[in-house]
Design goal:
The structure holds two protein chains of two kinds. In chain A, 35% of the residues lie in helices and 26% in strands. Chain A is α+β, with helices and mostly antiparallel strands. Chain A has three domains: 8-54, Uridine Diphospho-n-acetylenolpyruvylglucosamine Reductase, domain 2 (2-Layer Sandwich); 61-174, Uridine Diphospho-n-acetylenolpyruvylglucosamine Reductase, domain 3, CATH 3.30.465; 179-284, Enolase-like, domain 1. Chain A has a five-stranded antiparallel sheet with strand order 4-5-10-6-7, with helices on both faces. In chain A, strands 1-3-2 form a three-stranded parallel sheet, covered by helices on one side. Chain A has a three-stranded antiparallel sheet with strand order 11-12-13. In chain A, β12 and β13 form a beta hairpin. Chain B folds into two domains: 2-72, Ubiquitin-like (UB roll), CATH 3.10.20; 81-150, Orthogonal Bundle (DNA polymerase, domain 1). The radius of gyration of chain B is 15 Å and the shape is globular. The chains are: A alpha+beta, B alpha+beta. The A-B interface holds A 1-9, 32, 35-36, 39-40, 42-43, 52, 54, 56, 80, 103-107, 109-110, 189-190 and B 13-15, 17, 36-38, 41, 44, 50-53, 56-58, 60-61, 104, 122-123, 125-127.
Amino acid sequence: MQVPAHFEYQRATSVEHAIALLTRHGPETRVVAGGHSLIPMMKLRLAQPEMLIDINDLGELAGITVAPGVLRLGAMVRHADLLGSAQVGALLPVLHDAERVIADPVVRNRGTIGGSVCQADPSEDLAGAFCALRAVAVIRGADGDRAVPMREFFTGPYETVVGPAEVLVELRVPLWSAGSAYLKVDRRSGDWAVAAAAAAVATGPGGVVTEVGIGLTAVGRFLAEEAEDFLRGRAATEANLVEAGRVAAQHCRPTADQRGPVDYKRHLAGELTTRALRLAVERAA
Amino acid sequence: MVVNGREHTREIEPRLLLVHLLRDELGLTGTHWGCDTSNCGACVVWMDDVPVKSCTVLAAMASGRRVRTVEGLEGPFGLDQVQRSFALCHGLQCGFCTPAMLLTSRWLLDHNPDPSEGEIRSALSGITCRCTGYENIVRAVRHAARSEAGS
C-alpha cells in the first residue's frame, strides 16, 4: 500500500488565507489543488510536505472569462472545464488539442491547469501550449500580485518562479493568434509525451506570418525561439514550415530515456513542429 | 461526508486516502483498490456528482462533500439500468473494474443519453479492464442508452 508520510492538513477559505497559512507554516508547506501530481508524489515519498493547504474551496480561482483581447483562466480551472468550454475551443484550439491528450477523462475531472503548470513536469502538455501562446501567470503573495510571462515561469524541471509563500491565481492568455494547434506522440492513450509541439500563428496579407509562437514538450526546453525567429515575417509556405521544424529540432535538448533515444525525440520535435504549424495555419485561414 | 445519501462522521488522519476510508472505515468494498497510481481507475467514485479516482483523493479533501459509490447506484425500484445492461450483455468477467465502469457509464449517460461507440470508449478510457472485455462493456453501455431512450 502506498501511503503518504504524516502531514498536517488545512483548508484555505480565500487566497489571502492560503498565503497567510503558507507564510506561517514555512517552506515545507505545499498547496494542493486537484492533487493528481502531488498526491502520487507523496505516496511515493518523493514529496514529503509537513503541511498541505487545500485550495479546492476557492471558487474565485475557477473562472473562465473572455475579456477584450485576453482569455483569463483561474488557476483552479479543472482540465475537464477547459476542455468543456466551447469558447476556449473556438478561440484557442491549441488548448483543446492539448487537453484531449492529458491523462484520461476521470483524471481531467480533478486535475487543474494551475496545478499542472506549477508541477512543472518537463513532459506536461500545457506548459508548451501556454508558452506558445505567450500567456502570463499572475502570482499572488503577501505584497500583492505580480505578472510573470509563462516563458519565464519555469526555472527547471519541477521548478517555477512561484515562491514558497505565493499562490498562482490566474493565467492570462492574449488573443493574438488566428490559428493554433497541439500535436503529441505518446506510447499509449493518455501517457506522457515522447515529444509534442504547440504552435500559434497570426498571418497578414500574402500569407506572411506576422507573429508565431512555438512550444515544445518533453524535449528539454519548452521554447523554440530560434524557429519562431526564422518564421516571423516569412510566408507560411510548406518549405518555410518544414524549415521552422528543422530549426526547432536542431535547438531542442532531449535526453534518452525509456520513451526513446535522443535522435528519435529530436526527429519528433521537428516533425511535430512542422505539422502543428501546418494545422495552425490551416485553422487561421 | 455524505456517502450514498447517508452522513458519516469520522476522525481521520490527513494522509488517509478516500478509497481506504470507503473500504476500511465504512465497509463499502464495492469501490476497488487497484493500481494505487491513478492509472487503472478501479477506484472511481463520484465526488459532488463527478467521477474521480479515489486513490488520488485525500479523505480529508472529501470532507463535507457528497460521495456516491457503486453501492449507491441501485434505486428504489432495483438495479440501475447500467447494472442491468452490464449483466444482460456480459459486460463483466472478473468484475474488478465493474464498479468503476458502472459509475462512469452512469455519469456518461446522465450527460450524454445517446453516446456513440467512440464517445463511450473515450469516456471509459481512464479505466482498465484486465479481462480486456471492452467490446461487451461498450455494448452494455449502448444497451443501457437504448433501454433508457425506450422507457
